[in-house]
Amino acid sequence: MRILFGLAVLCAVVVTGISYFVLYRYVSDVPENKICGNIYIGNVNVSGRTKKEAKKLMEQHLKEDAALEITMKVGDKSAGATLEELGLAYKDIGKVVDKAVEYGKKGRLFTRYRQIKGLEKEKLVLNEGFVLDAEKTKAVIEERVEVLAEHAKDAGITKSADGFDITKEKKGETVDEKASAEMIRKYLNSGWDHKGFKVKMAVKTEEPSVKASDLESIKDELGSFSTDAGGGERWKNLKAGVDRINGSILMPGEELSVHDTTAPYDAEHGYVEAGSYENGQVVDSYGGGICQVSTTLYNAVLYAELEVLERYPHSMLVAYVDPSRDAAIAGDYLDLRFKNSYDTPIFIAAEIDSANQMRFTIYGKDTRADGRTVEYESETLTTEDYGVTYKENKEAELGSMQYAGSPHTGKTARLWKVVYENGAEVSRDVINNSTYEKSDQIVEVGTMSDNAEAAELVRKAIASQDKAAIEAAVAQAKGMSAAGSDNAGEEN
C-alpha cells in the first residue's frame, strides 16, 4: 500500500514538472521586448511592435484622427470643426503602450499562459484614452456654436417724443460648454469608429440679464453733451461709433468700454480712413475721429456723475473741447471706461441730429437733491508755443520750402468739478490733470540739385536750424547753381 502511494506521488510530481516545463516553454517563446499578437490600441494593430514602434504608430494615427471633422448641432443648425481644432490628444499613450507591451509577461506563470493563449481566440483592445484641450474646445464652441443658439433677448428701451418705449425681454438657450465637451470626450472613448461624426450639443436655459421691469425706473435725463460732427470722411467714423453706443443699457455696477464697444476699426465694420494723431502728427487711419465720440460721451458721463474708471488726454490739443475735457482712444492701451454708479439702470442715447450735432444723453432715475447742479471748468496751467523745425527734402527742388505737419501749442491743464446748490457754489474738486505736447511746424527745404556743392551748402544750414542762415544759404546756393548752368552752356 505504501509503495502504491509513493508511486502515485512520484507520477504526480513528474506530470506537474512536465506541465510546468510546457507552460514555461510556451510563454518564453514570446519576445520580451515586443507586444504579443492580436493586441490593438483602439483600431490600431500593435502586435509584434516594440514600445518605440507602437508609440510612433499611435502618434501617426492621432494625426489622422485629428484631421477628421465633427459636426456640432444646435437645433436644426450646425457648425463644423476638425478634432485638431478641439485639441484632440492622448491622455497618456505611453502608459497604454506599456500595458500592451507587458500583457502576458507579468504575474504567475499560469496567468501569463492564460493571457497569451486567450489572444489566439480573441483580440485584446486597449482604449487610447482621448482628451480634448479645454481652452481650444471652449474657443471653438464660443466662436462657431454659441451663435447657433436662440439666445435670450434683453428688454430694450428707446426715447420717443412721448417718453420711453420699452420692449419686453425673452428667455432663450445657450450651449452648455462643459457638458458638450464632456459628451464629445465620452463618445471618443466609447467605441468610436474613427470616422467623422455628428453630435447634438447640450444646451441650457438662458435668462435675459435685463428685464422690462428693470427699465421702468428710467425717467430722467442725468447728463448730456454735444459737439459739432463736422463733415467729410471723418463724419462717417463718428456715425459708426455713435451707432454702436446708441441704446446701451448699463445695470447697476456694470461698466462700458468705448474701445470694446466701437472696435474693430476697419472697413468691414463701417470705418474709413480719416485724420488722427500719431507721433505728434496728423495721419490718416481707419476710425480717425473716434476720439471725438469718446470725448463727447465723456462729458455726458461727467454731467451724469457716473464713476469714470479710465480716461486719457490726447497727445496734443483737440479743437472740439477745452483742455482736460477730452478722452483719447488708441489701440487697446488708451480707453474710456466708466461704471453705472446708480442703484438703477441707465440708458445711453446717441445721435447726430439734424443740426449735425453729435449728442450723447444719459437717462436713468435721478436721485440727486433738488437744486443741485454741476459744472466743469477747464484751467490752463502752463503754455508752450510751438516752434519751427527745418527738415531736408532730397526730392524737392533746391531752396524750395514747403510747410508740413500739424503745429500745436503745448499745454498743461486741469478740470474742475464745481457743485452748486440752488445757485450757490458748495464745492470745487479737481477731476483730472492733463498734459498736451507741443508739435512744431515742419518746413521741408529742398536740396535736389545737379550742383553737389550748392546742395551741401543748404544741407549744412538746415542742420543749424537757424532760419536766417538757411535763407542765406538758399540764396547763395541758387546763385551757384545759376552760375554753374551758365558755364555749362559756354563753348571751348
UniProtKB/TrEMBL annotation:
Superkingdom of the source species: Bacteria
Domain G5 as annotated: residue spans: 370-449
Keywords from the named record: Signal
Pfam family, one: VanW
InterPro entries according to UniProt: G5_dom, Glycopeptide_resist_protein, Vancomycin_resist_VanW, YoaR-like_PG-bd
Alphabetized Gene3D superfamilies for the sequence: Resuscitation-promoting factor rpfb
PANTHER family (UniProt xref): EXPORTED PROTEIN, EXPORTED PROTEIN-RELATED
Protein name: G5 domain protein
